[in-house]
Specification:
Structural class: mainly alpha
Order of helices and strands: HHHHHHHHHHH
Strand content: under 5%
Number of strands: 0
Radius of gyration: 20 Å
Shape: globular
Number of helices: 11
C-alpha cells in the first residue's frame, strides 16, 4: 500500500513545478524576462539538492517509487534553472556546476540501482551529498535567521520592551557572512573522514548515517522558506508576469 501511494505521488509532484515551467516558457516567448528575474534560484537550488539527496538515500533503501518521485523533482527544478540561466537570472557558471552535479547524481543513482556501480564511487557520492547538504542547510538557516533579525528590528516599536532589549543586543552579532556554511563544511568533512578511517564511535557512525537522510528532508522543507526570504528581500519584487496561480 505504501509503495502504491508513493507511486501515485508522481503526478502531483510533477505538477508542483509544471505551472512555473509553463509560465516561464510563456514569458520567454513574450520577451518578458523581468518576471524570471524575480525567481530566486538559490531557493530552487535548496530544493534541488534536497531532492537529489533524498533520491540517493532511497536508492540505497531500494524504495523505487519514492526514488522516482524525488528524481522527477530534480529534473523539473533543473528545467526551471535552465530557464533562469537563459535570461541570466542565474549565472552561467553556477548553472553549469549545478547541471554537472545533477547529471552525475542521476547517472550514479541509475547505475547504483542496477548494481553496476563500484562501491567506492557510491561511497564517495554519499560523502559528497552529506557534506554538501549539511553545508547548504546550515548556511540557509543562518540566512533566514538574518532575515528574521531584520524583520524583528523593523517591528521594534511594536514589541514588548524586554524583547526590544534582548533583540537589540543580539542584532549586532548577526553579520552577513558565509562563515556558517564554511564551518559546517569543515565539520562535515572532518566527521566523514573520521568515519572512513574508523575513528568514530559506533553511535557516531550511526548518527553520521542518518545525517544524509535528515539533511535532505530539511533541505526540501526549507525550499519554500528560502524562496520566501529571498523574494521578500529582493528589490524587484513580483514584476509584471510573475504570478503564483496556475496559468490557463
Amino acid at each position: 500500500m505504501t509503495a502504491k501511494l508513493a507511486g501515485a505521488a508522481n503526478l502531483p509532484f510533477l505538477l508542483l513545478h509544471l505551472p512555473q515551467i509553463v509560465l516561464n516558457t510563456r514569458n520567454l516567448l513574450e520577451g518578458n524576462t523581468s518576471a524570471l528575474l524575480a525567481i530566486p534560484w538559490l531557493g530552487m537550488l535548496t530544493g534541488l539538492l534536497g531532492n537529489l539527496c533524498l533520491a540517493s538515500y532511497f536508492i540505497k533503501k531500494r524504495e523505487t517509487e519514492v526514488t522516482v518521485v524525488q528524481t522527477l523533482g530534480v529534473i523539473s527544478i533543473n528545467v526551471v534553472m535552465l530557464q533562469l540561466a537563459m535570461v541570466k537570472a542565474m549565472h552561467l557558471p553556477q548553472f553549469i556546476v549545478t547541471s554537472v552535479v545533477v547529471a552525475s547524481g542521476l547517472i550514479i543513482n541509475f547505475t547504483q540501482y542496477f548494481n553496476l556501480l563500484h562501491p567506492s564511487i557510491w561511497s564517495f557520492w554519499e560523502d559528497f551529498m552529506t557534506i554538501s547538504g549539511v553545508s547548504t542547510l546550515q548556511q540557509m538557516i543562518y540566512n533566514v535567521t538574518c532575515f528574521l533579525t531584520i524583520s524583528f528590528k523593523l517591528l521594534d516599536n511594536r514589541l514588548p520592551w524586554f524583547v526590544q532589549v534582548m533583540w537589540s543586543t543580539f542584532i549586532p552579532y548577526v553579520p552577513n557572512t558565509i562563515l556558517p556554511g564554511i564551518s559546517a563544511f569543515a565539520i562535515a568533512v572532518t566527521a566523514v573522514l573520521m568515519g572512513r578511517m574508523g575513528k568514530l564511535p559506533e553511535k557516531g557512525v550511526k548518527f553520521l548515517g542518518l545525517v544524509s537522510g535528515w539533511t535532505a528532508t530539511l533541505l526540501f522543507m526549507w525550499m519554500g522558506v528560502a524562496q520566501m526570504v529571498i523574494l521578500w528581500d529582493s528589490k524587484a519584487r513580483f514584476p509584471k508576469g510573475f504570478r503564483t496561480e496556475v496559468p490557463p
